[in-house]
Amino acid sequence: MLAYFIQGGQLMREQNVLITLFGATGDLAHRKLYPALFRLFQKGFIKNHFAVIGTARREWTDEYFRDVIKQSVQSLVKSEDELNQFLSHFYYQPHNVTDTHHYVVLKELSEELDAKYQIEGNRVFYLAMAPTFFGTITEHLKAEGLITEQGYNRLIIEKPFGKDYASAEELNNQLRQSFEEKQIYRIDHYLGKEMIQNISAVRFANRVFEALWNKENIDHVQISLLEQVSVEERGGYYDTSGALRDMVQNHILQILALVAMEPPVSFGDVRKNKIKVLEQLRPYTTAEEVNKNFVRGQYGPSVDGLKPGYREDANVADDSNMETYVAGKVFIDNERWEGVPFYVRTGKSLHSKETIIDVVFKEANSPLFCGIDGCPSNRISIHITPREGFCFVINSKAVGNTIALQTSHLEKIFDENFAMSSPEAYERLILDCIEGDMTNFTHWEEVAASWKYVDSIRQTWDSEIAAEFPNYAAGSKGPQSGYDLIERDGRKWVDRD
Ligand code: BG6
């Protein structure tokens, strides 16, 4: 019997599911997935009727696997008993993804666990590994009968989903041989973040914003995904990806779509409305347009010499031309956003970590207060990380015998308890998948439109001989060209320090 329990004042039901995790020995599983599953277990979303089969090439035993998981969830453990209960649901199966026989073994184990935990055929296949193998795995899952007739079958895939439109389409076609679109859960972990999910609440649950959310009232939007970290151990991957593919094609365009989409009538409409926005992005088709509207950068060593430059990374070519910073000006060709620029930027090895959306309104035009200098713009800022919250910037009269204005920041930054009680992105997304809610996963048509948009930028950059890299120091605010891009339009990035 599946248990019912109360969570946040709502009646919830335990889920029964068999999760087969490809890439069980990998970093993502260790850092994110096991802790996420443990939190779901602690809350009761998975309890007695679930099992996880971890697979990877390494010859681990169940015991060793459980030990590894134990380490990864250690900081969350409240009782040994609870931990042991949780671990008892994990099984390990060494697996070579191209070997048909291994799928036969996996099928037997799946059926055994299904019966043992009364899972009723509900299966999630989680591919947390190199995308090269996605097609092979899904083909075998179908051919060897791991996809069940009885319950649901869902596929979770990690990014990158292709490296351009053509490869993404090829991958999608491979997946579609075995799974239907409604069974494919493409992860963009940003969509699992508390404050990203809050964008829609701020927009649609406040008349004061939604009524003004258009070209008549909004001057421009800024989306900044600034990172302090360098490429760390991922130089090899990053040197084939760069910031444009790594952050713009997915996270930045997803955020832009949420900020810009038409109001959905139901949660079921969110993806449809995002697709429309992404298909309405104005493409830059000539090199001149690309270079006018998008700039790139690559970090060199920090000024004090303590942080190495990108090209010094062991897995990066000495003369690499790959960008670690991108800033761009994006337009959406529709009625609501005609002429409103969305400035976006992202970069590695910058001076601080800041993920933030700034929606800057047009100035008021009161003849009483906004004389020659104009009035400062109102702004709503949505802080995503590391601070989580909002800030609404408004003008009022300065105190005293004056008509001068003062600008106030009405700020609500959530405290540590908020972060601690808010589910981590992976926890939320895994639960959504188990519950069959696709709202926060990217539809193929979103992926396709995003790739088409960034492909022309990538192609232009790839066809140019060499960029003048490095052009910003590690630990700095990024290249000057990122500032010039917005300042030549008479605007400024809203920098926090
Ligand atoms: C990943 C990128 O998708 O997002 C990384 O591949 C990046 O390069 C990371 O560091 C940023 O995510 P977050 O949640 O730390 O902002």
Question: Would you kindly provide a written description of the structure presented here, covering whatever features stand out?
Answer:
The protein has helices spanning 27-43, 62-73, 80-87, 100-116, 134-143, 165-176, 194-204, 207-210, 235-260, 270-279, 287-293, 416-421, 425-435, 444-463, 480-487; strands at 4-7, 10-13, 17-22, 50-56, 90-94, 123-127, 153-157, 184-186, 218-226, 294-297, 299-300, 325-330, 342-347, 354-361, 379-385, 389-397, 405-413, 472-473. A hairpin with a 2-residue loop joins strand 1 and strand 2. An eight-stranded mixed β-sheet has the order 10-12-13-9-14-15-16-17, with helices on both faces. A six-stranded parallel β-sheet has the order 5-4-3-6-7-8. With 497 residues, it is an alpha/beta fold. The chain is 36% helix and 20% strand. It is globular and about 75 Å long. Residues 227, 246, 355, 385 line the site of 6-O-phosphono-beta-D-glucopyranose (BG6).
List the keywords.
alpha/beta, 15 helices, 6-stranded parallel beta sheet, 497 residues, binds 6-O-phosphono-beta-D-glucopyranose, 18 strands, 8-stranded mixed beta sheet
Write the layout of secondary structure elements.
Layout: E1 4-7, E2 10-13, E3 17-22, H1 27-43, E4 50-56, H2 62-73, H3 80-87, E5 90-94, H4 100-116, E6 123-127, H5 134-143, E7 153-157, H6 165-176, E8 184-186, H7 194-204, H8 207-210, E9 218-226, H9 235-260, H10 270-279, H11 287-293, E10 294-297, E11 299-300, E12 325-330, E13 342-347, E14 354-361, E15 379-385, E16 389-397, E17 405-413, H12 416-421, H13 425-435, H14 444-463, E18 472-473, H15 480-487
Helix pairs in contact: 1-2, 1-13, 6-14, 9-10, 9-14, 10-14
This protein binds 6-O-phosphono-beta-D-glucopyranose.
Residues 227, 246, 355, 385 line the site of 6-O-phosphono-beta-D-glucopyranose.
